[in-house]
TrEMBL record, chains A, B:
Gene3D superfamilies: 1.10.1370.30. This is G4264 protein. It comes from the Eukaryota. InterPro entries: Peptidase_M32_Taq. It holds the Pfam family Peptidase_M32. The gene is g4264. Signal peptide: none annotated. It comes from Coccomyxa viridis.
Length: 519, 519
């Protein structure tokens, strides 16, 4: 189904056929849960942005009560009965959006009800214990203090996955939580191709490239001016302040309670202009996806983001494909020159080079550039899959981590704090999360290329600060279709004409960095 | 029971006697409802202070879902059964705080479960319809457009009251919603005494008094400086920013989600320094009460505010007894002089006079000073009681309103917009609410007098900007006892040694204004 059809698809909330009443009852229950989810979203945002410190315990109690109420609704036997009746009827009489509503609700039902309370409780406890253990272990660079948590997560995730779907590998079932419709076989295919292209490109850049001059972005930049500039850019990109807010928090994020109540946050450091700027544009990309959700299906799972990877594609499309492009530097350079007295003569080419320098040594994922980032992800993906498959054991992890860092990224961590302990994810049992970052980057490259084809003036528009054409294109092709498609590949097929094709991403990087580094 | 005992009372969550298990089950249910109430409180605060305008519909849906969940919990038959068992056992084995928990829970149970859904629904609808009708009627100064709403409210309130307690008068049952343990017979006694004292005092002030010079507070005052000053004063009075926030909203209020999460708001106008200043101190009084709630009984109704009147006593104690006193002017005058360049030589006596001028004409309640305010309240109290008793009919209301304005306050509204239509309360069915404003003022005078007796240095402390003695006294005597006492009179007896005595209030006003107006 083409995206243009998605947008103009006539809305009907009832099937023509037999199960009209059941479908309506299902929607009522789903909408109530969605509203409860929105309230929890607001509690979370408030906690990060507004809540006084002394209220931490009361907020924990509020979240726990909400989680209990949500669990009761999610496991309500009436909901199960409705889904049984609707699923047994196949797709007869339901349009594609309605079919997606039933499919997604069924999926959530299975993932919630198959897990006994004992396991759900232990997972929640291990999240807290794991975070504590990880913090200590990283602080002391002592992997042994984190290893028991990791052992227990591996065993818990295997147990959980077998309960949800014993016919599939534990990793595939875990992955499904973050990237619907994706399999490790498919990721292997994609990541192998990416690794084969990126490792030599990186080698070339490092050995033969002429690095751009980054000195212009070094120094001290007033944070108030950074905030004013970034807020005005977020609005120019299309963030709607009538349906959202912009605030400051320690860790930038996009949250809120509803597509009409999207709350993004930013953070600014006076010694790092790039981080604040690209961070704000990254969150704007997430926020535009949220504000673009299809209100014709308000409160139904079909209007939710398809996956973490697709969500990340929207932040990375704006952060990388747009904001790290030369046309955007043409728009941005005079703005920076106006905002900061030390940049009076900033030129677009100079800014473009400085924003796109590849790090000489890329040891830490969260500080990586777009060339080295996927190699960090591939390393983590391989290891977490091998842990679940049993081909790598927990005690061997630090050694293998360091070996692959050397092989893929050309640098070796000096200790485990800088190596295997650098990320928080595994401490919370988030196995299957890492790949979505790079899938997002690849979706973004492919989506951007399709938009370029459909909107021939795109680069000129960006240079002129005109972003509404791109935003509308994304609204129609990506945002409005929500979870209509069962996988990222299907969404790519509908929006760009082919499933995810990593060669688009590789081609983009190769072309860009060949020019930039004069390879 | 003396307040000092209240504070040191040993906490036990279980009765020694037979119904220990039932009491614990009751507490668990009550705490969950309290937590849900806190979440609703946060939703309300956010709506007034943070929410983007476009999210209004989604917020309404969130509030409605929360109200539905709360209603289910409030009317849970298991809760009713527990209360039956606990109530039938009398107070055997329960300490006074536990007895108060059971008493308050029983009271809430009756007030919720006796009202059929039909009436609850109609009341909710009539609140919205009433607000619309009132807005139109006031805009056109056309009482006829509001009269049908008022007729329906009178009938609905009679019906509701009869369902809750047919043995008492409809007005007394309605009053109980806002002022627990209060009766109209007791208010008649109090208000008659107040009216007999105030009407001649006001006449004397107007006819024989020498008004203080108010020119010093006229002019334009930078709102940013006002906000900075008021926020610093709120902190000096004792507002704890670790357990609360200070923000700005269109209508100042104090809300939040818990005693550790108290959120007060203020508003500043550049042409009115007094309103911003006294408003901020008023809200600080409410906020200190909320932050002072007894966390030994967290989530239980005994730690809630006793009544609207007692809550108002805390805001008015700080706004009037403290901030409108001469010692406070001694503290405030140099601060104002520092904050506003047009007040370089401001003297305490000059400021005290300007802050305490009695309006020449007091037509509007919300703009009234402390001398005329009670007369506005007495007029409304008489009329709403007479409406429910049937001794005044809705069509006669505007005429009687104007006659009593002339008689009590010496001025006659030029139309109904300025007269009977000036307040929003009746449009929402809030019959029994008005008296709490003036009961609060009288509680405040009596409480302050008791504090003065216990803290001999009180006035010198205030002049020196030392407020912690008064705050601690209020924490122990008023805040911590929450809803332990069944009425405001009982609280007054425990905290000050005698039930509410309006002569303390009259004496305070007479003495203050005799000196100020040189009577």
């Amino acid at each position: 189904m083409a995206a243009a059809q998605v947008a103009s698809h006539p809305v009907s909330t009832a099937a023509d056929g037999g199960n009209k009443k059941e479908y309506e009852s299902l929607c009522e229950k789903l909408k109530e849960m969605s509203t409860l989810g929105g309230i929890s979203g607001l509690l979370g945002w408030d906690e990060m942005v507004m809540m006084p410190e002394g209220a931490a315990a009361c907020r924990a109690a509020q979240k726990s009560v909400m989680a209990g109420i949500m669990y009761d609704k999610q496991t309500d036997p009436e909901l199960g009965q409705l889904l049984d009746e609707l699923s047994s009827n196949g797709s007869v009489g339901f349009d594609p959006f309605q079919q997606a509503v039933i499919r997604e609700a069924q999926r959530d039902w299975v993932r919630t009800t198959k897990i006994p309370k004992r396991i759900a409780k232990r997972r929640a406890e291990l999240e807290s214990e794991g975070y504590q253990a990880w913090t200590t272990a990283r602080g002391e660079s002592n992997f042994a203090k984190f290893a028991p948590v990791l052992e227990e997560w591996v065993s818990l995730i295997k147990e959980t996955s077998a309960l949800i779907d014993p016919s599939r590998s534990p990793y595939d079932v875990a992955l499904e939580e973050f990237e619907k419709g994706m399999t490790s076989a498919r990721i292997d295919e994609i990541f192998t191709q990416v690794k084969e292209g990126l490792v030599p490109l990186l080698k070339q850049i490092r050995e033969k490239g002429t690095p751009p001059d980054t000195s212009v972005l070094q120094g001290t930049f007033d944070t108030k001016s950074q905030a004013d500039l970034c807020n005005s850019i977020a609005k120019e990109l299309g963030f709607d302040l009538d349906k959202g807010r912009l605030d400051v928090s320690v860790h930038p994020f996009t949250g809120g309670s509803h597509p009409t109540d999207v709350r993004m946050t930013t953070r600014f450091k006076d010694n790092d202009l790039t981080e604040g700027l690209t961070g704000a544009i990254h969150e704007t990309g997430h926020a535009l996806y949220e504000q673009g959700r299809n209100l014709d299906y308000d409160g139904l799972p079909v209007n939710q983001a398809l996956s973490m990877g697709v969500h990340e594609s929207q932040s990375l499309l704006w952060e990388r494909m747009v904001a790290l492009s030369l046309p955007f530097s043409k728009y941005l350079a005079p703005k920076l020159a106006g905002a900061f007295p030390q940049l009076p003569d900033l030129q677009a080419e100079q800014l473009y080079g400085a924003l796109n320098a590849v790090k000489k040594e890329s040891m830490i994922r969260v500080e990586a550039d777009e060339v080295t980032y996927p190699l960090h992800i591939i390393l983590r993906y391989e290891l977490e899959k091998e842990l679940l498959e049993g081909t790598v054991s927990v005690p061997d992890l630090p050694r293998i981590w360091n070996e692959r860092m050397t092989s893929y990224l050309g640098c070796t961590p000096k200790d485990d704090a800088q190596g295997v302990l650098q990320d928080v994810h595994w401490s919370a049992g988030l196995f299957g999360y890492f790949p979505t970052y790079s899938l997002g980057a690849m979706y973004a490259a492919q989506i951007y290329k399709a938009a370029q084809k459909d909107v021939p003036s795109l680069e000129a528009d960006i240079a002129a600060g005109q972003f509404s054409g791109l935003k509308s294109w994304l609204n129609e092709r990506i945002h409005k279709s929500g979870s209509l498609h069962p996988s990222g590949d299907d969404l790519m097929r509908a929006a760009t004409g082919s499933p995810l094709d990593p060669s688009v991403f590789l081609h983009y990087l190769t072309e860009k960095y060949t020019a930039l580094y004069q390879l």
